[in-house]
Amino acid sequence: MENLKFAVVDLETTGHSSEKGDRIIQIAIMFIEDGILTNEYVRFVNPGQKIPVFIQELTDITNAEVKDAPLFEAIAQEVRDLLEGWVFAAHNTNFDLTFLQKEFQRCGIPHWQGKQIDTVEFSKIMFPSAVSYRLKELTEELGIELTAAHRADDDARATANLLLKCIEKVKLLPEQTITRLHKRSFSLKTDLSVIFYLALVEARQKTSHPHLSHFRGIPFQKTELIQNLKPREIAYPISQDEKDQLLIQAYPSYESRNAQLEFMDAAWKSLRTGTEIMVEVPTGIGKTVSYLLPAAIRAVETKQAVIVSTYTNHLADKIMDEEIDVVSKALSIPIQATVLKGRSNYISLAKFAELLLSGESSYDNIFTEMQLLVWLTETTTGDVNELNLSGGGMLYIDRIRKRSSVLADDEVGVDYHQIALENCRHADIVITNHALLLSEGTSKEQIVKESCGLVVDEAHQFIHAAYKTNETIFSYTNWKYVLGQIGSEADDQISRRIEEILIRKRLHRSRERSNLLTAFEKFSSAFDAAIHELIGSESVQRGHVKGSRLHVALEDISADRIVFETVFQSMNSFIEQASTYVKRLDIEVESLSDKEQAILTEWHYWIDELRVKIGEWVELFLENETDGTVWMEQDQRSIPGSLTVIKSPIDSAPVIRNSLNSFFTEKKGVIWTSGTLSVKSDERFVARQLGVAPEVPVLKLLAPEHFYTGAQIFLVDDMPNIQQVAQQEYVEEVAEAIVQTVMVTEGRLFVLFTSQDMLNQTHELISDSGLLEDYALIAQGISSGSRYRLLKSFRQYEKAVLFGTNSFWEGVDVPGNSLSAIIIVRLPFSSPSEPVFKAKTALLNQMGKNAFTAYALPEAILRLRQGFGRLIRSSTDTGFFIILDRRIETKSYGKKFLEALPDVPVKKVSLARMVDELNNCYNK
Who wins on pLDDT, 872 or 578? Predict the structure, then answer.
């Protein structure tokens, strides 16, 4: 690529819009020739106005620094001349180039003309699994130096090195991958086709990549199968000294803890005798290794795997990546483990190959294909959760997820899910997630049949997973998306492409085409009428509104059942017509080209999606008897786009016992473990929901002595009473408390909410104030990415605040000084309008029980305990647990919350006093 010359540009400005009077305050251009940074141009620019305070704080550029600098008018022509003949590159050309062109126009200078490269677009393709594509996080992940973010010279230099890193990676790709990338690159927003073309020319002169396999011409990294090991012998250690010696081999600095050894013994007894136990294990005793050691020994002894189930895929990956080597080291023998996730977590290579052939045309689809082509040369799991994709990208991914266990001949031995299943046969430890264990299917049946026991980690979350995996969900936007795929008459859509094939093959029949279109029109009209019936019902207007979201029980909606019947009938009719329409193609499929076969397969895929949706429709809208609760949700600001209808079971216990039935009937050991399995006022609260028999005790272990000495609890006693003021007033006080706390702690702070609406309002208020401009404000539901990606971003920033809702109250590990404080905005009671909670409490009341004390209060206490558990992860951790909700001291039940927390100092103080105390701690 020696003949490409890049000018990498970064601007610092007083704001985002030149047209609204914002101006450049610094410009930097890094020049790259022959793959080397050869020259640079860096100038401060006098904006002719005061630099806003938040821009000064962001960039560290002051009014004094630009006072004697030239106006942009004085250097505009010079800048324009410097860029002439170079490829313009920037990290978001849409900002830098657009702003610069507007400034050229304002100064009476012609627009710059030439090719442009956006390193955001480029890096998303070349690093599809990156946590973030913001320059600071991306360069940190790739090991590129960025001394001072938001200074044009440092940003431009880092962007130049990022560009070189992307080009370097392109050159390492196999020719077949680059060929496909180049073909698709003409649909991109910037001129990356030039780079891919030159890389292709170079690749044709190189040898192949022997470490890669090929599937229908697509290069991919093949996953290796676990090999059978020679017979291994290991006995469970009997004495305390033997156990200690085992753990010292893994941890040279290990200190013996009675609770850890007690848990090991309990786990071993359960697995050896085939009994069920519940063990509450506090943070700090090495819970994971404590159950993995006896599990591994039992697996080696029986030559059958022990299944370890976690709540999230991230936790499963963490055990695999961090804990299995520790166990092997402790036992001095190799322990083989594998991760198995639900089938849909894996990419189907066959489906991807078909879509590549079918000729996708939208930017989102083409861009996602490019990301996948690069990712396949790297991934050893085929797990699509590794990818960091846009919303449009996720829609594409949904089409290539593994759906069926049936394999084509060329898929055998290369299918990621099949390999994962095969690895389970040879593994000692099979790590999976709660959702898979609660699902039906051959994957689950195989691993359960071939196992000798089960460890359920984060066991309290098994209850939540039981509800989620047994939900039936209707989503208006999802249905409309499917209807759009099969009903669109646009030239590049599937319906039109099928018609073109029929015409080419002289199989087209006008009557069949007309019948198809008529059937679709009836189906679409019936669907729209049903939606209008749902959202237009008077009872919907009286539903419970929380923030902007409305919940209403489906049984309370006075909709006409005939409307839902009509959708069912017209849907069946359309599916019949759609099948008839392509019957002749199905008969002559062997005469079709690969591309035509791919298009036909795509048509059948969407019709099969409709068949699935028929089942959902019947279950939600036409079944008279229901074994759960059904409700409708919608956001008042987005109707009907936000409309969903959900059916969920009310009682988790029968769902769980039915899913795990074979473990109990075949007398396999089952270990339920978590940091929160009991409440003082009701020790069987979690056990009942898991369906655990009353005779199975809950073994509660104690944290190591002095484990929580670094923790303090603050109750802020001058906050308004949350039940006596408007939410907006409370939010303003919460925002003030957060800002003041952050200023003292310098970030490293979690703020935990119970409602997304309150989180949104608080985040918006703080963001608009500009008071925390120097901090990364990472907010669940606002910042893009999964919970894991948000957490990773939080860890990467030195000055960060994370705003989280329910899923951040637990299962999040931020050890050491990365987390200094947690703010609890309100006590974590479930919303009374939350449908499953509402149905459960109604059922308890009918049974003559007090739903508040029997369910609402213990559930909230458990959640607060889980929130506290995020703060102290080791005996050396320090941190502050700050509760803003005054009900903890004004209500009679408040003391039950405090009793459930570890025995640490509790201080009731004003906000000002708390800030002073925090300040004193940090000054020390």
Answer: 578
150, two tokens: 């938001």
Residue 335 contacts by C-beta under 8 Å, 6 or more apart in sequence?
A: 296, 299, 300, 324, 327, 328, 428, 429
Residue 285 confidence (pLDDT) above 70: yes
- Burial per residue of 458-474, b for 16 or more beta-carbon CB atoms within 10 angstroms, e otherwise: bbbbbbbbbbebbebeb
The structure's pTM equals 0.83
CATH 3.30.420.10 location in the chain: 5-204
* Phi, psi for residue 750 in degrees, rounded to 5: -100, 140
User: What type of residue sits at position 580?
Assistant: T
Contacts of 875 (CB under 8 A, 6+ apart): 284, 704, 706, 707, 709, 710
Mean pLDDT of 336-347: 91
In the chain, CATH 3.40.50.300 covers: 258-345+402-460+662-704, 711-923
Tell me the CATH class for 258-345+402-460+662-704. alpha beta
pLDDT digits 0-9 by tens, 401-459: 988 778 888 898 899 999 999 999 999 999 999 999 998 777 788 888 889 999 999 99
Residues 649-702 pLDDT 10s? 999 999 999 999 889 888 999 999 998 888 888 889 999 999 999 999 899 998
CB crowding 165-188: b at 16 or more within 10 Å, else e: bbbebbeebbbbbbbbbbbbbebb
Measure the CA–CA gap between 611 and 606, rounded to whole angstroms: 9
- The angle at the Cα of 126, spanning 125 to 129, to the nearest 5 degrees, equals 85
Q: What's the topology of domain 5-204?
A: Nucleotidyltransferase; domain 5 (3.30.420)
- Of the candidates 825, 802, 867, which has an alpha carbon nearest to the alpha carbon of residue 737? 825
Helices (H), 433-582: 434-437, 442-449, 461-469, 476-487, 494-504, 510-536, 538-541, 561-581
pLDDT digits 0-9 by tens, 186-213: 999 999 999 999 999 998 888 777 789 9
Question: Mean pLDDT lowest for which of 293-297, 409-413, 569-573, 671-675?
Answer: 409-413
250, 333 in Cβ contact below 8 A? no
**pLDDT of 379:** 94
- Superfamily of 711-923 according to CATH: P-loop containing nucleotide triphosphate hydrolases (3.40.50.300)
